[in-house]
Amino acid sequence: MKIMFIGLGLIGGSMALALSGYPDAELYAVDRDEWTRFEALNRGAVQAAWKDADEAPLEAMDVTVLCLHPDAAAAFVREQSCRLKPGSLLTDVCGVKRPLHEAVSALEGRRFTYLGGHPMAGRERGGFVNATADLFRGSHYILTPDETVPEEAVRLMERLVLHMGCADIVRSNPEAHDERIAYTSQLMHIMALALCDQHLLFDSYGFEGGSFRGATRVAALEPDLWTELFWVNRETLANLTDELIGKLQEYSDLLKAGDRQALLERLTASSNRKKEFDQLRGFAPSKTPLFK
Predict the structure, then answer these.
(1) What is the pTM of this model?
(2) How far is Cα 1 from Cα 152, in angstroms, rounded to an integer?
(3) What is the pLDDT of residues 4-59, one digit of tens each?
(4) How many CB atoms lie within 10 A of CB 52?
(5) Looking at residue 279, what is its pLDDT?
(6) What is the DSSP letter of 85?
(7) 46 near 69, Cβ under 8 Å?
(8) Which of 257, 196, 242 is nearest to 223 (CA)?
């Protein structure tokens, strides 16, 4: 089985490294950066690499993985989809699914299968230099099949991502994916950024513990990428941001009201919601958590 990665940044590079040893797999890549191509070959992540997709043998690939920003992934489909091998699988790792799903849906006479994907893993620093074979260990991997995707394509992706070390596979659709990701990922980045905009940030060195480091970790983001992700999902993300502002205002009002018992009751209720969520997802205190 021949697999082509279009882009060898943090995610694409880590996927290539994690798929090392997959039975009968030949791994290839396209990446514009000369150092990345050299290092990927040097580390054994891929067997060959090309600077441009026009030069790469896309027609021979059984699986093509788009490891690009959403707009670039959609552009690849418009420009290169006619070269994909009939019956082959096209997948991606984009943080929002609608742009690429819409680009694929607009194609006429499509002869390949498209199955959207999104690994719930990453780091605040990107690039192949930060890629590791264990990046996906213990993480979710989301797949967004529609009615055109044969079950054997889904099963193939499941085998690949489990080999990468993912804990489980979550099925969704593009719309539900983007709504949930607005809440679990994009809103978390906005919270981290807002915390780093507060006036005490630079006066707090030496006072920061694990909660502060965890809450602000993702603020050291790549602005171009996250502007694109936020913009595609802006209506949903704006609504969730407004909801969060309302929840924060409720806590502010409780702190100002002088009613300690009311504050205790609210903290208890919110804490219990988190504990209930953890139990539903199998993260009971007596069990090993999925994420570390």
Answers:
(1) 0.87
(2) 14
(3) 999 999 999 999 999 999 999 999 999 999 999 999 999 999 999 999 999 999 99
(4) 9
(5) 86
(6) P
(7) no
(8) 196
What's the pLDDT at 285? 46
Beta strands in 108-152 (DSSP E): 113-119, 140-144
Show the low-confidence residues of the chain (pLDDT under 70).
Answer: 281-292
CA nearest 68: which of 114, 6, 135? 6
CB 128 within 8 Å of CB 13: yes
SS3 percent helix, strand, coil of the chain, rounded to 5, is 50, 15, 35
Give the position of tokens 């699986």: 63
Question: Which residues sit opposite 63 in a β-bridge?
Answer: 3, 89
Residues 216 and 204: their CA atoms lie apart, in Å, by: 13
Give the whole-angstrom CA distance, residue 152 versus residue 133.
26
Q: Is 183 exposed, middle or buried (0-12, 13-18, 19+ CB in 10 A)?
A: middle
pLDDT at residue 289, rounded to an integer? 38
Amino acid identity of 24?
A: D
Give the pLDDT score at 284: 46
Q: Which amino acid is at 85?
A: K
| Ramachandran class of 69: left when φ > 0, alpha when ψ lies in -120 to 50, beta otherwise | beta
- The span from the CA of 94 to the CA of 233, in Å, is 13
Helix (H) or strand (E) holding 119: strand 113-119
Backbone angles phi, psi at 161, to 5 degrees: -75, -30
CB 130 within 8 A of CB 124: no
User: What contacts 18, CB < 8 A, 6 or more positions away?
Assistant: 133, 134, 135, 136, 163, 164, 165
Q: Could you tell me if 30 and 4 are in contact, meaning their C-beta atoms sit under 8 angstroms apart?
A: yes
Residues in the chain: 292
Q: What is the reported pLDDT for 282?
A: 66
| Of 98, 100, 144, nearest in space to 118 by CA | 144
